[in-house]
Structures are given as C-alpha cells and as structure tokens.
Design a protein that fits this description.
It is a single chain. The protein is mostly helical. The protein is built from 16 helices and no strands.
C-alpha cells in the first residue's frame, strides 16, 4: 500500500502542476469557452461559465488519471480496486489542494488590487474571478476538490475497467476486422450502381451539412476545410514527391494578401470582384512559387527545408513589418475584405439569400472538392506517376 500511496502523491503533484500552469496562462478557461461554444452552438460566448469551467477541470484530471491507471497496471495488481480508489483519492486531493493554494494566492492579490498582468499577461482581475467560479474564495474551495475528485475517480474507473476486461481494445479491434472483412472498397469497384448511389449520398450529405450545423460549428468546419485545402497542396510536394518543404504556407499567404488587397477598400481602393481577384491571387501565388522554386530545384533534404523555411520567415516578417503596414495592415491584417456575392439562382430557389456563413461554407466546400479533384488528377497523371 505504501507504493500506491507514493504513486498517488506523485501523480497528484503532476496533475496539480499541470492544472496550475494551465490556469496561469488562462488555458483552462479557454478550453471551457470552446466546450461551451461547441455544446451551446453560440459563437458569441466570450467568457466561460462556472459550470463549464468545472467540467473542463474534471476532464483534464480524468484524462491524466486514466493514463496513470494504465501506466501503473492497477487492474492487474492484487487488491487492484482498492489501490485504484486510493490512487483516485490521492490525485483528487493533491491536485485540488494545489488549485486551492494557487487561487488563495490569486484572491489575495485581487483583494489588495494588485495587477498581476505586469508579470503574468493572462492574469487579469476578470480571469481571476472566473477561476474562482465567480464566488468568494471560501465558497470556491469545495468546488475545486469536487471537480478534481470527480475527474480522478472517473479516470481511474475508466482505466481500471478497460485494463481489467480489455474490452475497449478488443471492441475496436473487432470492428476493424469486421470492416475489413466486408471488403467495401472492392464491392464499390465491382458495382457501378453502388458507386453512383454512394456518390449521390455523399453529395446530399455535403449539401445538407451547412443547413443543419449551428453557427459555431459552421465556422469550425470552414476553418477545417481551409486547412484541408492547404494540406492537400502540401501533400503534393511533401507526401507524394518526398521533398521536405517548410515554406509552403508562404505561397498561401501571398495569395491571401493578393486577394485582400484587390477586394478591400483600403489601402489600394480597387474593390475588385470575387472572381477576378480570386484568379489573380492564384496567378500571383503561382508566379512566386515559380520564382522561388526554379532556383532551388536541385536542393534536397535539409538544405531544401532550410531554404524554404527561410522564405516563409521572410514573408512573415514582411507582412508584419511597420514599413509595409500601410499595405499589409501589420499584425492586425487587412480589414473589410470583399466577400463573394451569391448567385441569383440561390434567391430564386430559396426565396431569400442564404445567411453569409452558410453561403461561405458552401463556397469553401466547393473549392475543397475542386482542389481534391485536381490533386487526384495530378497524382494519377503521367507526370504524377
């Protein structure tokens, strides 16, 4: 038992240090805001509510408690359940006590009106109040112990059951074997009707997705698709040709700033339409790619990585520099970038124009499919092979 108590103390200290660090950089509250936005579907939430902050603390403790339970093989030891219970109690009490000590210190600074932002940029008075669950310190103490203990007990229980029965691993292994046994890909290759039906179902799902998602999820899916487009392009040079290129994102930036400069009212005042600005952005990225790529075609491995990384850093410094801030907007970027107008057929079909976020997601989805098609065509073309 002495060994498990030592492990419980060590694990609790590790979890407590992580919780303290997360709170000092306001990471726990940030995760809580993300969780609350995801559950509520509202993108207007700016600060975490006490309920979601408590849930996030419990989830963090749960994750690490589960890992410690698996690492120590608690379920395989004699009196494993009792040892698991002691481990959970130790993690919950020690990590909760460290949170109490930290927030007691922060509450003293708050009471004495000492601004900690001179030392810790994230520790504003509002953040400290949120970390105290919007309550006096004395009332927040049991909440800290409750959340850490609940997370520790849940994590240890999940780890104990999984390690004892082996069911989670066997379950996923069994599913993978059954899926492989179905040979779905071979079936679609042999049956043209199945391919058509599958394609139609995918198209219906993709077209209906923006209509059923909440605004926050629409913004998340949009960002995912934008980075997926970036990943498809990166896969051509890194994944398929095997060249280690770190500066690919710089070409992305060139196209983005070209489009922004052509469509925004300031600084150039051109305010071009979406299609010509989009095409010019493609051309500008291609030209810069050719100018950078041609001289370094003979480079390989680390040398190519260093050169392309240097190019990416040059672009980053230039767009953030004060000398070019009149054109690039500096760190704040270019504001009021033009958005694509909706075709009249949409108003004809739906009676009213689509909300801007839904229309924008449809556009990103179309561009993603287009880039995916081009990527596959290049991959299986004579040049790609």
């Amino acid at each position: 038992m002495k060994d498990i108590l030592n492990k419980a103390l060590q694990s609790g200290l590790i979890v407590g240090v992580i919780l303290v660090f997360f709170e000092l950089i306001d990471f726990t509250c940030t995760l809580g805001v993300m969780l609350e936005k995801l559950v509520s579907g509202s993108s207007k939430i700016k600060s975490v509510s006490p309920v979601y902050l408590g849930i996030m603390i419990a989830l963090i403790v749960l994750l690490f408690s589960w890992q410690f339970t698996r690492r120590y093989h608690i379920a395989r030891q004699e009196n494993g359940f009792l040892k698991g219970l002691l481990l959970a109690i130790g993690i919950g009490l020690v990590s909760g006590g460290m949170l109490v000590l930290l927030n007691w210190t922060l509450s003293r600074f708050l009471t004495n009106k000492i601004d900690l932002r001179n030392y810790l940029a994230a520790m504003s008075p509002d953040v400290i109040k949120r970390s105290l669950f919007e309550k006096p310190f004395a009332e927040a103490i049991p909440i800290y112990f409750l959340t850490t203990s609940a997370g520790a007990l849940s994590g240890v229980l999940i780890g104990y059951i999984g390690d004892k029965t082996g069911q989670p691993g066997q379950f996923f292994t069994l599913i993978a074997k059954r899926v492989r046994a179905l040979k779905i890909s071979n079936y679609f290759e042999r049956n043209s009707h199945a391919r058509v039906i599958g394609t139609v179902l995918i198209i219906i799902f993709a077209l209906s997705l923006p209509l059923i998602l909440n605004p926050y999820m629409i913004s998340v899916v949009g960002l995912v698709l934008i980075y997926a487009i970036l990943g498809l392009g990166l896969n051509l040079i890194v994944g398929l040709s095997g060249q280690l290129v770190f500066g690919y994102v710089a070409f992305y930036a060139v196209g983005a700033y070209t489009f922004a400069l052509l469509t925004a009212p300031k600084p150039l005042g051109i305010e071009a339409g979406f299609i010509p600005a989009f095409l010019l952005a493609l051309v500008s990225s291609g030209i810069i790619g050719a100018l950078i790529g041609l001289p370094i075609m003979n480079l390989r491995g680390d040398y190519l990585a260093i050169v392309t990384l240097g190019f990416a850093e040059i672009v980053r410094i230039l767009v953030n520099s004060n000398q070019l801030a009149e054109y690039t907007g500096g760190p704040q970027g270019i504001k009021n970038i033009g958005s694509p107008a909706q075709p009249k057929i949409i108003s004809t079909l739906f009676g009213d124009p689509l909300p801007e976020n839904i229309w924008f997601l449809y556009l990103i989805l179309f561009l993603f499919v287009l880039v995916l098609y081009i990527s596959f065509q290049l991959q299986f073309s004579r040049t790609g092979r």
